Amino acid sequence: xxxxxxxxxxxxxxxxxxxxxxxxxxxxxxxxxxxxxxxxxxxxxxxxxxxxxxxxxxxxxxxxx
Length: 65
Description:
- The protein is mainly α.
- Helix content is 74%, strand content 0%.
- The model has no long low-confidence stretch (mean pLDDT 82).
């Protein structure tokens, strides 16, 4: 995936030294892909995050009441 992206975007082979701007572009691509994957997964598929959210909500309710 990353190799294909860099070849299409920069015409770079795996041995090509990238500039700082190109490296930043690749990092932005990786983070955007990860954000898309996280957004696609429902909360139920991430039980630890779901449990943490429930605990935070309960704690906030306890503070308010």
